[in-house]
Task: inverse folding
């Protein structure tokens, strides 16, 4: 039994065959060649007989694997290859053929959504991703792509829902975590934004943009020292990352490091001369470095680029305040409040300007409202106390203007302006229990040195219990 290997049979004629008689006979013959003992022969002879029997039977043809592939899958593969080679026209044509071949093939819809992203056809991206998700909703990347398109179209809430769906399917999508964090920041959910951006930095700490957005959230929360550290990391990763330089200028202004804020603003503007945040923050630093003219120039540039920049309006008003032009400052603070009525700084600035004009009741109203919007705002609380102390020394709110010794016509003009300011609150619904409502009604929470302090003759109408919205100016 231990002779030479037997000759094998010819292979099957088909060139596409992956299995032949030669293969089977070779296996069977190898058993005959390798059996050296009776014990081995008794164990393997049945297998040897079976293999030789199989080699004598006619074989069925075995086709190449590509012949069994779905035509849509083949076209999709070719389309993706063309897309990677930037042959976008050929890629799109193949996708259309694949879609005609099998309109229920979800990967084709997904890939066409990718292609439409390149042409910024965001409506098309949303439509294709929606169809892909209808066919197969398990792909996290498809949810994320549709979220990006919705974000570009301004559908922030819809984009956030898609981001959440993507993250629920794959929580390793660091870019999606960051996108949701950006949108939460736009909607005012600063704490939620910081949580998402921190997750993004843990998943991929090498992306400067993630650190920059996290720093912006911390600035909003007035965590200036920590925000500056995050900006340092973003700048280390990408020295040309303009938002990081601008955010560090904000943080340094918050830490009263005005020279550093000025340097950061300058650096941001070297990379982007139209960065509104950098212009406004450089102006803010210049105000406190006693360069009010330079601050006004920066604010004017910022407002020409973005008339809705609250920081620029407030900073320009503060520069005018420092120059002693209180009425012009109030006009700028009015603009800031018109843009963002819930900004406590704008109300506080205007209250400070009113106090400089001796209009203490107006100053107290603005300062109280600023403190109501931000209970940790110590400067606003102090202004309320100062305004209350001044107002308690007079019998009516008009007297400070007359007693300042101003010319009679100017005094009358300011008196009319102040009266108009107070009367605008009459009949205005405000939140029940807010400091603003109590101040207008003459019942503040702050101690008074004079129990007979003048109260407004026409208090504001109480808010409807069913209406929780503050409509105060």
Result:
């Amino acid at each position: 039994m231990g002779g030479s290997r037997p000759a094998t049979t010819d292979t099957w004629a088909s060139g596409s065959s992956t299995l032949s008689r030669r293969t089977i006979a070779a296996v069977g013959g190898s058993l005959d060649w390798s059996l050296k003992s009776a014990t081995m022969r008794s164990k393997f002879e049945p297998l040897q007989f079976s293999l030789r029997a199989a080699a004598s039977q006619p074989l069925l043809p075995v086709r190449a694997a590509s012949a069994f592939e779905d035509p849509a899958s083949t076209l999709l593969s070719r389309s993706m290859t063309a897309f990677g080679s930037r042959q976008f026209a050929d890629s799109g044509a193949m996708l259309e053929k694949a879609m005609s071949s099998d309109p229920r093939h979800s990967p084709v819809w997904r890939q066409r959504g990718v292609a439409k992203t390149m042409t910024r056809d965001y409506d098309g991206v949303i439509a294709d991703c929606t169809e892909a998700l209808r066919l197969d909703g398990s792909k996290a990347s498809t949810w994320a792509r549709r979220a990006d398109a919705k974000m570009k179209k301004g559908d922030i809430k819809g984009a956030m829902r898609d981001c959440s769906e993507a993250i629920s399917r794959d929580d390793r999508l660091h870019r999606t975590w960051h996108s949701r964090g950006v949108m939460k920041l736009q909607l005012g959910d600063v704490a939620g934004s910081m949580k998402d951006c921190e997750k993004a930095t843990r998943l991929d700490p090498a992306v400067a943009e993630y650190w920059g957005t996290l720093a912006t959230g911390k600035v909003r929360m007035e965590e200036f020292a920590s925000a500056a550290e995050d900006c340092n990391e973003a700048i280390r990763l990408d020295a040309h990352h303009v938002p990081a330089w601008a955010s560090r200028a904000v943080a340094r202004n918050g830490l009263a490091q005005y020279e550093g804020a000025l340097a950061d603003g300058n650096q941001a503007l070297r990379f982007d001369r139209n960065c509104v945040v950098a212009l406004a923050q450089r102006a803010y630093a210049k105000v406190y470095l006693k360069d009010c003219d330079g601050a006004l120039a920066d604010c004017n540039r910022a407002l020409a680029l973005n008339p809705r920049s609250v920081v620029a309006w407030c900073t320009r008003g503060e520069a005018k305040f420092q120059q002693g032009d209180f009425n012009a400052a109030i006009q700028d603070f009015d603009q800031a409040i018109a843009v963002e009525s819930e900004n406590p700084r704008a109300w506080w600035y205007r209250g400070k300007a009113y106090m400089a004009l001796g209009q203490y009741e107006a100053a107290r109203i603005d300062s109280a409202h600023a403190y109501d919007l931000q209970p940790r705002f110590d400067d606003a609380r102090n202004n309320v106390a100062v305004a209350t102390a001044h107002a308690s020394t007079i019998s009516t709110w008009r007297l400070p203007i007359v007693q300042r010794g101003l010319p009679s016509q100017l005094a009358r003009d300011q008196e009319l302006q102040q009266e108009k300011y107070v009367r605008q609150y009459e009949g205005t619904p405000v939140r029940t229990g807010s400091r603003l409502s109590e101040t207008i009604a003459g019942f503040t929470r702050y101690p008074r040195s004079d129990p007979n302090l003048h109260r407004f003759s026409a208090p504001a109408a109480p808010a409807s219990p069913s209406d929780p919205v503050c409509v105060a100016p």
User: Anything to note?
Assistant: Residues 1-38, 57-68, 394-408, 424-473 have pLDDT under 50 and may be disordered.
